[in-house]
Amino acid sequence: MPLRRRLARWLDSSAMLEPDLMTLMWAGTRGYRAEPKFPGVLTDEQPRAIDVPVLLVAGARSAMLTPAEAHARGSLMPHAEVAIVPGSHGGFNRIDELNDRIAAFIRAQATGERATP
């Protein structure tokens, strides 16, 4: 199996198999130079100080923030809900599910109730 096909399957991104999209992506990145800027890691006390509703979204297959880590971080925030997008790295390939979850969270904030996962 070609490398791109394996990578597309692992990333759950069929767009990588579309030649026109890949040409556009490579054209857009030509000449781009990113400065690596890594975000600071919050201490446990900093999330506890967040006093607004928070929806923490993580993909079930995320390498950056596993579901267990997301739940642990979310439990530190007094008004946080954790949404795990199944079978995804970050939810961008399951945009309908992600949008539904975000909309439910916003509706719950407007009515003063907790959104159901």
From TrEMBL:
InterPro entries (UniProt xref): AB_hydrolase_fold
Highest taxon listed in the record's lineage: Bacteria
Record protein name field: Alpha/beta hydrolase
Taxonomic lineage: Bacteria, Bacillati, Actinomycetota, Actinomycetes, Micromonosporales
